Amino acid sequence: MKKKKLYTMIVHLLLCSLLLSSCKLYEDEYSGEIFAMDTLISLTVWGKDANQAIIDCERYLYQLEEQFSATRSGSEVSLLNEIAPQWQRLSPEVAEVLCFSLKMYDVTEGAFDATIYPLTKAWGFTLNQQQVPSPETIETILPLVDSSVVEFREETQEARLEEGMELDFGGITKGYAGDMLAEKLRDDGYSSALISLGGNIYALGKKTDGALWNIGIQNPYGGGAIVSVQVEDKAVVTSGGYQRYFTEGEEIYWHILNPDTGYPAKTGLASVTIVSDSAMYGDCLSTALFVMGLDKAIAFWQEHQDFEVVFITEDYEIYVSSGLSYSVATGYEAKVIAP
Amino acid sequence: MREDTQKEDGIPTGVLVAILLLVFLLALAVLLLREDSGKAQAQIHQSGELIAEITFPVAEPYSIVLNSQGRINEILVNAEEILMKEANCPDQVCVLQGASNVSPIICLPHQIIISFSTENQWTGLEGGELDGVTG
Predict the structure, then answer these.
(1) From CA B99, how far away is CA B51, in angstroms rounded?
(2) Which of A94, A299, A324, B85 could form a disulfide with A90 if both were Cys (CB 3.0 to 4.6 A apart)?
(3) Cis amide leading into B57 (omega within 30)
């Protein structure tokens, strides 16, 4: 009897040993990193054959880059820009993004405007040759920045810009790609993945241990994360002036431009982070709310409330929308925005 | 029947338990070694190739100069952080980013990624380890 107990204990110990030594192997975690869409894209997927899923996602990203790049000659978007004011037939992907961007132009009352490309070029942000354009140049370009005159025929999937106008989906394509990759992975049966497109994150499902994803928000002044949010099946997208800027004299000029003035949007905000179901929606909103400034952006959230938001001001103040108040963590004082 | 008992009695119980405990501890050690040892590490990749691996803290600050067909980057490794000191890339985004030991430092034109294996660790604030960082 004593021996039987001993052997039972031995078997249990051996089983424990086997489980302990192999549990990590069965998680099937695969990661991949690629340079595409002018940024670093990281994918981590948990599940069987996830390495193949990552390869498929990478292929898809290159395909999107071919379609959407405004700087790549021959891409669908650059062709649309070049042949204006003629009509051009669009692929379903470009048509979807164009329609969404036009809708967001209306919803944000022009704070998000995909026709901002001539301005971005004048500031040199597209080709990394930053410069401060003359006021005359900006005045000349401003009439070309107006999504309200972009025409789209739904029945034939054709679009047309006015002469001189140019589209740039840089502020929306990464979000679109995040949504598409998440959908692709979900359809393939994966329930746990982290997609990071240049810092725009889509957290698919939950972690393999059932916990929520804990996503940090970069401190705009350096030194790592300043806030974290716990999410499941959400996109977490940040826009901040610190992400791309240049200095001339004492002045800092960043890449987020106000479509109304033609100058960098300086509204007292250092960054805006959107937590939403759709990364494309989050991508547009993070830019638009940054352009609006704190007060208008808070009013926008209060009116819509189909997303959550974290504002970090240039004075180091942190504001979080009430829906995040239980899932946010920070070592700093955060003010909760009431609905 | 008697023979079986003899076989069972062949290995003293104490030795058997000791061996099995050893196996158990070894498995535990394997698991713990596979986990992050807690020491922060940085990896520098250029065009997908691993150039250097750094374990923090480093005793003395030092520089790593990468020169790939005229694409020059000078990386400064401090005690517990890394920064891109100089680069002849057109946008200077990597230089302007400043020092980091959390978020990756990226020089897109020169295809350099400096990533941190403790990227997901977040000390000093509440909320536990991070799975990713946006911004």
Answers:
(1) 19
(2) A94
(3) yes
pLDDT tens track for B83-114: 999 999 887 888 887 788 777 888 888 888 88
Which value does ipTM take for this structure?
0.84
Per the structure block, which two tokens stand in for B112?
């350099």
pTM for this structure? 0.78
pLDDT one-digit tens code per residue, A227-261: 999 999 999 999 998 888 888 888 889 899 999 99
Alpha-carbon distance A121 to A141, whole Å? 10
DSSP string over A286-319: HHHHHHH-HHHHHHHHHHH-SSEEEEEETTS-EE
pLDDT at residue B110, rounded to an integer: 87
CB contact under 8 A, B135 and A213: no
Contacts of A215 in chain B (CB under 8 A): 130-134
Q: Nearest CA to CA, how far is A302 from chain B (Å)?
A: 24
Residues of B in contact with A230 (CB under 8 A): 127
How many CB atoms lie under 10 A from the CB of residue A153? 13
Question: Is there a contact between A246 and B92 if contact means CB atoms under 8 Å apart?
Answer: yes
Identify the CA nearest to A194 among candidates A205, A180, A186, A184: A205
A129 and B131 in contact by Cβ < 8 A? no
For B15, phi then psi, to 5°, come to: -65, -45
**Contact residues, chain B, for A16 at CB < 8 Å:** 24, 27
Is residue A292 a contact partner of residue A300, using CB atoms and an 8 Å limit? Answer: yes
